[in-house]
Amino acid sequence: MRTSTPRLSWKDNALVQPAPREAYRRLLASGWTDALATLHPGQRLYTFWDFMRQRWQNDKGMRIDHLLLSESLRPRLVAAGVDREQRGKEGASDHAPAWVELTS
User: Fold this and answer.
1) Residues of 22-34 as b/e, b for ≥16 C-beta within 10 angstroms?
2) Kind of pairing, strands 77-82 and 68-69?
3) I want to staple 101 with a disulfide (CB 3.0 to 4.6 A). Which of 27, 33, 36, 79 is the partner?
4) Contacts of 13 (CB under 8 A, 6+ apart)
């Protein structure tokens, strides 16, 4: 008898459910700025790749780490990014570090 491996899906993950996604939209609408999206518009920037099903090897990640700036900090935003190369190292976490740089 052959057993099959259960299919893994993000559909039950809290991060993709309507309520948390709407809460995030409300944060942005209230004046918070997504530093990564502001400096990298239209780019798919992932911060997490599950170890299952070769998510890293196939670049099928998720962005679960967000760097939000208040309205007063927004003008000081200089740079922001994700250090993907850290995720690719042997024994690495399933997350890649996300960072933001502000002027003083």
Assistant:
1) eeeeeeeeeebbb
2) unpaired
3) 79
4) none
In the prediction, which pLDDT does 74 show? 97
Q: Is 35 exposed, middle or buried (0-12, 13-18, 19+ CB in 10 A)?
A: buried
**What is the token pair recorded at 20?**
């948390």
Nearest CA among 63, 35, 60, 66 for reference residue 47: 63
pTM of the model: 0.79
Tokens of 2: 């052959």
The ranges assigned to domains in the chain are 33-102
DSSP characters for 8-58? P-STTSGGGSHHHHHHHHHHHHTT-EEHHHHHSTT----SB--TGGGTTTT
Mean pLDDT by 10 residues, the chain (104 residues): 56 78 94 97 94 89 94 97 93 94 96
How many beta carbons lie within 10 A of that of residue 49, not counting itself?
23
